[in-house]
Amino acid sequence: MKLPAPLHEGTLRHRYKRFFTDIELPDGTVVIAHTPNTGSMKQCAIPGYPVLISKSNNPKRKLKYTLELIKIADCWVDTHTQRTNRVVEEALRNNWIQSLEDYRVQPEYKFGESRIDFYLEKSDSKVLVEVKNVTLCCQKTTACFPDAVTIRGQKHLRELLAAKQQGYRAVIFFLVQRSEATEFSPADDIDPEYGRLLREVVAGGVEAMAYKTVVTPEENRVGEQIPVML
Q1: Sequence-ordered alpha helix ranges (H) in the chain
Q2: Closest among 207, 149, 146, 143 to 177, alpha carbons compared
Q3: E strand or H helix at 66, and its extent?
Q4: What is the pLDDT, as a whole number, of residue 117?
Q5: What pLDDT was estimated at residue 176?
Q6: CB 181 within 8 A of CB 226
Q7: What's the pTM value of the predicted model, to 2 decimals?
């Protein structure tokens, strides 16, 4: 998926009130950028980290700038969670995700008390896919989710298990934004209930997949699959 262009270099100075960051531009000017991420951004929202921001010309916007990418260990990390599903949708429609090829793709599917990110269908196969954006590493090369307690995420796992029990194929899909990651596991120290539920639903037939992204200042796309360690 192509990123907004042009992107402007800056340095992250402070994140506050969840959706705001102070960004210092190369000339020393400090601007406020919208931060489209509801999580803690642990390991990402670190003062001094290089960032790339976009600028909007929409006169109705209160904040002209948006935080797009943060550089961690010399690699760009996409913390823009509103883009996550579009990256996965591109991969689904282009058959880049193994075992989810050649399906008709419908985003935002109402199931139970939730809206599941994707409904896939072909022949007599029906698949529900819920996507989670992963920007945290619990260990040096182990990506993990969540970065804060997520009641909503726990609810999604229960819905996926219910779907599986009703005859759907159900997938929890972790989009890993950390290029150094070689495996994925639940962040048990942050949200032990999520980890417990993830293991429970996988035992009940829900599939857990983790794919890394390839992120550059120009694009973000789905790359290689990595193992899920439970």
Answers
A1: 81-93, 151-165, 192-203
A2: 143
A3: strand 65-72
A4: 98
A5: 98
A6: yes
A7: 0.96
Amino acid at the residue 104: R
| Domain match, 174 and 110 both | yes
The string of DSSP codes covering 125-188 is: EEEEEEEEEE-EEEETTEEEE-SS--HHHHHHHHHHHHHHHTT-EEEEEEEE--TT-SEEEE-T
Number of Cβ within a 10 Å radius of residue 58: 7
Residues of the chain with pLDDT under 50: none
Q: Evaluate whether residue 171 is within a structural domain.
A: yes
Instruction: For tokens 């913390």, name the residue.
Output: 79
Range of the domain at 42: 8-78
Helix 192-203 and helix 151-165, axial crossing angle in degrees, nearest 10: 10
pLDDT at 113: 84
CATH of the domain at 220: 3.40.1350.60
pLDDT at 42: 95
| Number of folded domains that form the chain | 2
The contacts of residue 203 (CB under 8 Å, 6+ apart) are none
Residue 124: its pLDDT value, please?
A: 85
